[in-house]
Amino acid sequence: xxxDIPRNQILPVDVVDVRLDAEPHPFERDxxxxxxxxxxxxxxxxxxxxxxxxVLLSELAYGDNRLVGRCHAVRFSTxxxxxxxxxxxxxxxxxxxxxxxxxxxxxxxxxMGAHTVNAxxxxxxxxxxxxxxxxxxxxxxxxxxxxxxxxxxxxELGEARGEERCxxxxxxxxxxxxxxxxxxxxxxxVAARIERFVAADAEPxxxxxxxxxxxxxxxxxxxxxxxxxxEWHFSRG
Length: 237
Known about the structure:
The chain is α+β, with helices and mostly antiparallel strands and 237 residues long. The chain has 6 helices and 14 strands. Strands 2, 6, 7, 8, 11, 12, 13 and 14 form an 8-stranded mixed β-sheet that branches.
């Protein structure tokens, strides 16, 4: 199966069947020395980084509105070497985006904090899948999105209306899985809530919220796949 998914187009997804394989990822198994050497260099640049556990795909395919894949738990240091070497045919990344839509139809994104690996980058609150995001071996998108949004913004997705269908946008190195969540508050009200959360957090992950009101309102440092998602949202009417 490897990676058999259309690239650079937004795909409807009704079923996500991505499973966690207990076997080591071949990329981590085959690159142990390089992973250690690169991690030492990365830590020197960003001392706050922690070598926790994330997951990396070894397979992903799309067909009949289904995403089917296999992933493996890897150390964050492995992910960082993969990130430096991508694209690779043996490994790709996938993550879930909760696209937060305010009552006045603006998008609520975040700018990452200066101490993070994505310092200054702007995207919808998200993070790599972790082993805790899997239930009986199957990824739980809703759990992952709720956890990441709560950790980064203080918002509770249970207070929003989530659309039933997801969407996927795949590039050469990874796939974003998106679910739209409609909030009851205006963009300014949501931004104020996030700002209060960040101010009260001793070690916030983000610098703050970023409100996007249209394609003529794109912030700096958007990560590469974000403009396509923003354009898609505002084209939906």
